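question for whoever is on the cluster today: can someone run the full assembly for these? two chains, 542 residues total. i dont have access anymore since they changed the login thing
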Amino acid sequence: MHPAPSVIIFTSLSGLGFGLMFFLGFGLPEVKGWTAFWFFFIAYAMSVGGLLASTLHLGNPQRALKAFSQWRTSWLSREGVAAVLSLLVMAAYAIGLIFFDTSLQLVGWAGAILSLITVYTTSKIYNQLKTVPRWNMPLTPALFLTYSLAGGALLAGQVSTAAVMLLVLTVLQLAAWQMGDKAFSNAGHTIETATGLGNLGKVRMLESPHSSPNYLMKEMVHIVGRKHSMKLRIIATILMGLAPAAILLLLPFSHALALAAVVSHVIGLFASRWLFFAEAEHVVGLYYDKR
Amino acid sequence: MTALPEKTEKKLGLAIDLDTCVGCHACVISCKEWNTSNYGAPLSDMDAYGAEPMGTFLNRVHSFEAKQPDHNAQTIHFPKSCLHCEDAPCVTVCPTGASYKRVEDGIVLVNEDSCIGCGLCAWACPYGARELDKAEGVMKKCTLCVDRIYNENIPEIDRIPACVRTCPAGARHFGDFNDPESNVSILSAERGGLELMPEQGTKPVNRYLPPRPKTDVSGEGKIDILAPYLEPMKEEATGFLGWLDKALEKI
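^ ran it for u. tokens below:
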């Protein structure tokens, strides 16, 4: 799949933002006044910024409001509804903390749960697609939720929670790559099942239906993005998981080091999200004899 | 709206004969011509005369080769358009309700006024049947020529999809798969009509009629009866040119 900057930024930033909100909703850390303002500012900037980035790839963003209508069937619609609900509920909680020195604890908990549900709906947009076997496995929602919780804990300054979550995340990410590499062949899709010509022998493409790549190939058969997969996997593993966990666990706590851990995690997160899209093979590639 | 109907009254679709398709792409052109000027936004082209011309098409013809060891390869031309699946994943993922499947005839359509161009339906389709139009930013797909098949302003003979109407090889057939007596149902039953990628669980309506078995002339002991006539003949010039040829050889 095409690793478009809009979807990479959307899933990464909104995941971090809602992850931070989850911890803020449970009063971790307990903040008030200006401190609360800055924490919520970061959470909102990331989640809203991510959501806005996602509208950049739309062909007709002026009709985006219609996307809230099909929550009964569409995960993308549910994602929109859940995101707006979390942002509204958390706003009430944040206003209480910032301006009235009041912790509306029940509202905070509700906002925290809604934030996590939002991340789950984001993951389901990708996880539901049978056409992309690498995404269509139970590990995908688990991975998105863990990314969100680990990043959120890191941003919320929950040192020990963040360190543990980062290590869990690293293991999950390695498992997802391992299982994802086999997902396509395990799903049983081949050029023979795609064309129904298997009984005639081994099938290959003789001639492409068009001389230049088309929308399908640019969007779903994006092979060039996988060029440095292995190097990026190593970079992502170190930067998003091992390095920040090591900083938190092994070095004495300081704000400068915490910032370094956050920066490292975010860069690693972008690298792994690039791979999430670039390495995802869509079954339509079979009609072009490509993966 | 993006919930799929439990069942549709008709199951309109195509039976595509891979045995007779000659890969001429006439259906591709005919489809583009009809659909760029009728239902919805036109099918735009990008950089049509440049180095990398791209455009929106609702129907494409792939060409495949199938080969068994020790046998001659076989070429199969393979037209591909929307299969109007019964369990269409493109419909349920749509966040705006723009994509829908009609209860009356099972045709899968896009209401372009509601389409935000997010592209998720194209991601959900295993067959590559949907293409986002770059100029309009809306999703385009085969409508089964819904504006022809019920159109009383055109002669009755033309009230079939443009691709079917134009196919010079008679490789495309249009009809109701819900009616066991329809032309397409009978063809599909007789020829063992195939579903594409059945493991995706989309229950496509369109059927592909597999190529008929070919006479195999490649095995041992089998002789191509035309082969002797096709061997190259030794050509020697006679008369004056023959003398000239020999004379020039000797110099």
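summary bc i know u wont read the tokens: Chain B touches chain A through 70 residues (CB under 8 Å). The CA atoms of residues 25 and 67 of chain B lie 23 Å apart.
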